[in-house]
C-alpha cells in the first residue's frame, strides 16, 4: 500500500544524499513537489502516480546539485570581490594617511629629517608592494573554508589592533610606543610591512584558493 | 494550421531569465506558479525541468535582479516568494529590446521569402 508522507521523506533523504542542501534549496523543492502532487491528484491521478510524476518533473539530485553548485561558486566569487574591495580601501586609506603625515610632517613626524622622511615613505611603499602580492592571489593556498574564515577573522583583529596602535602613536602618547622620545624611522618599518602582509593575506586567501580550485576543475574537465 | 513543436532546450534556457523577469514584473510569485504560468502561456511547448528553475532563480537573486522572502500559502504551506528589484526591471527592459530585435530580424527575413 502506497503511503505519501513516508515516500516524500524518502525522497528528501535521497536528495540530501545526492548533495542538495537544507534548508535551502531542499525546502523550496519539497514545497514545489507537494504543490505538484496536489495538482496531479486533483486532476484525478492516485497518490502513487502523482508522486512518481512529480519527482520526475523535479529532476534528479545530481543534475540539480551541479546547477546549485554554480550558484554557490557565484556567491563565493561575490564574497571574494567584496573582501578584496574592503582590503583595497583599507590599504588605500592607511597608505594615504601615512604618506600625508610623512610629507606634511604632522604630529610626531614634525621633527623628522629628510632621510627619515624617505625611509618612512619607503616603508609605506613596501607595505603596498607586499599587500599587492597577496591581493593578486600569490599567497598561500588554503582550501578549507573554515580555516580561511578563521585566519581572516584573527588577522582582521590583528589589523584592527595595528590601526589603533598607529593612531595612538601618531596622535596621543598613549600607545606603548610613547616611550620613544621622537620618531627615528624604525616604528614604521616594524609596523607597515607586516600590515601589508596581513592586508594581502586576508584579501588574497580567497583568490589563491579560487585559482587553485579553478585550475583543478579545468584539469579535471580536460582529462 | 502551422503547429509549433516543442521548443529546443537551448532556447528554453536562453528564454528563462526574460520570462521570469517579465512574469515577476506583474507581481511577486513563487517557483511552482511561475512554471505553471509559463506552461499555460506556451500551451505546454515551453517545458522546464521543474527543479532547474530554482538554480536560475537563485542565480538571479545573487545578481541582484530579484529578491525573495519566505511566506505561507492559503493552506499554510511554506513558500518562497520572489519579486523584482530595480536592476531586474532594467535587465527586463534590455531583454525585451534584444528579443524584439531578434524577432523583427526574423520576421523581416521571413517576409522577404514570400515576396
What descriptive keywords fit this protein?
heterodimer; A: 223 residues; mainly alpha; 2 domains; 7 helices; 79% helix; B: 115 residues; alpha+beta; Arc Repressor Mutant, subunit A; three-stranded antiparallel sheet; 4 helices; 14% strand; globular
Account of the 3D structure:
Chain A has 223 residues and is mostly helical. Chain A has two domains: 4-59, no CATH class; 69-222, no CATH class. Chain A is built from seven helices and no strands. The longest helix of chain A has 44 residues, at 61-104. Chain A is rod-shaped and about 90 Å long. Chain A starts with a helix and ends with a helix. Chain B has one domain (9-113): Orthogonal Bundle (Arc Repressor Mutant, subunit A), CATH 1.10.10.10. In chain B, helix 1 (9-24) packs across helix 4 (86-113). The longest helix of chain B is centred in the last third of the chain and has 28 residues, at 86-113. The model of chain B has no long low-confidence stretch (mean pLDDT 90). The chains are: A mainly alpha (223), B alpha+beta (115).
Question: How do the strands and helices of this protein lay out in sequence?
Answer:
The complex is a heterodimer of chains A (223) and B (115).
Chain A: H1 4-17, H2 26-42, H3 47-58, H4 61-104, H5 114-138, H6 145-171, H7 186-222
Helix pairs in contact in A: 1-3, 2-3, 4-5, 4-7, 5-7, 6-7
Chain B: H1 9-24, E1 29-30, H2 31-41, H3 53-62, E2 66-72, E3 78-84, H4 86-113
Antiparallel strand pairs in B: 1-3, 2-3
